[in-house]
TrEMBL record:
Residues 234-300 form the ChlI/MoxR AAA lid domain. It comes from the Bacteria. It holds the Pfam family AAA_lid_2. InterPro entries: ATPase_AAA-3, CbbQ/NirQ/NorQ/GpvN, ChlI/MoxR_AAA_lid, P-loop_NTPase. Residues 38-168 form the ATPase AAA-3 domain. Gene3D superfamilies: Magnesium chelatase subunit I, C-Terminal domain, P-loop containing nucleotide triphosphate hydrolases. This is MoxR family ATPase. GO terms for molecular function: ATP binding; ATP hydrolysis activity.
Length: 324
């Protein structure tokens, strides 16, 4: 098995050349990529989301495309369309933006529900159909979608069923004053993106996914994830908790974090570290929570604090992993 910790360190080293002070966010995106999931960045414009996506495409040798989602974007802009060629006398397929390895869907909540659905169908199925012909997206494939905070001009809330397709939801936030000074100085002469080296191939990423999927997960950790999911549905300030898809996403992120930490087995801390990112966009808050100004992130922390953590040592996990 590859040294996941070394891979994590090498990737973050390259990302830091262009993205200042967002190592935790970058690490979570790499976990989602390793777990085969998609990422939703819920944040204000101008904090570096596009730069972050471009940094990953360069460091991981991924074909990259970006589409600005405005009200006039149509499903065919994503999937492509058939056009009649007068010379050949035949209809030919015109490539859509989705045929890439890393697709940045910028401001996804500013476009129509029909266009959102077209993208989310590709995310779920890994394929799409144009004029009766089905096409596969290249592998590896990941969508990083950004959305402006709800209430911003021209935005509309994504339905819960569509939000559930994203493995994790992250927020970059503003840089600190010190980080902002570094960012401004970096761009005085050249573009820091030009300094990023490609250190992994597409085949490397596919191998990472296979190895992460083989990470050993003890029954106690499966039970822990189940208990957290159940608690999220019973919590008094939540109208809708984690779905089974959300529970499975948490397990996959848990395995990815263990792998990128250099372990062959998962520990409870892996679950705790990923729970908020997996849960925050899946929790539908009750009226009581909204009126009280309680956020989904706060509720995720409360759920973690109210569910007993399995007391299982790394030595035992390591031993059971070897025996299995």
């Amino acid at each position: 098995m590859s040294n996941g910790k070394e891979i994590m360190d090498r990737v973050l080293y390259e990302i830091k050349k262009a993205v200042v002070g967002k190592e935790e966010v970058a690490g979570k995106i790499l976990m989602a990529l390793t777990a085969g999931g998609h990422v939703l960045l819920d944040d204000i414009p101008g904090v570096g989301k596009t730069t972050l996506a471009l940094s990953f495409s360069k460091a991981l040798s991924l074909d990259y495309k970006r589409l600005q989602f405005t009200p006039d974007v149509t499903p065919s802009d994503i999937t492509g369309f058939m056009m009649y060629n007068k010379k050949s006398g035949e209809f030919e397929y015109n490539t859509g933006a989705i045929l890439c390895n890393l697709f940045l869907a910028d401001e996804i909540n500013r476009t129509s529900a029909k266009t959102q659905s077209a993208l989310l169908e590709v995310m779920e199925e890994g394929r799409f159909t144009v004029e009766g012909e089905t096409r596969q997206v290249p592998q590896p494939f990941i969508v990083i979608a950004t959305q402006n905070p709800i209430g911003s001009i021209g935005t509309q809330q994504l339905p819960e069923s569509q939000l559930d397709r994203f493995m994790i939801c992250l927020s970059m936030g503003y840089p600190t004053p010190e980080e902002l000074s570094v960012i401004m100085k970096q761009r005085r002469v050249d573009n820091p993106l030009d300094k990023i080296n490609s250190i992994l191939s597409k085949e490397d990423i596919l191998n990472m996914r296979k190895e992460a999927a083989e990470i050993f997960v003890h029954d106690a950790i499966y039970d822990y994830v189940s208990a957290l999911s159940t608690k999220s549905r019973e919590f008094d300030m939540v109208s809708l908790g984690l779905s089974p898809r959300g529970s499975m996403a948490l397990i996959r992120m848990t395995k990815a974090r263990a792998y990128l930490s250099g372990r062959d087995f998962a520990i409870p801390d892996d679950v705790q570290n990923c729970f908020g990112d997996v849960a925050v966009h899946r929790l539908l808050l009750s009226t009581k929570a909204k009126v009280g100004g309680v956020t989904a992130a706060q509720i995720a922390k409360d759920i973690l604090s109210q569910v007993e953590v399995p007391q299982i040592s790394e030595e035992l996990l390591m031993g059971e992993h070897v025996e299995s």
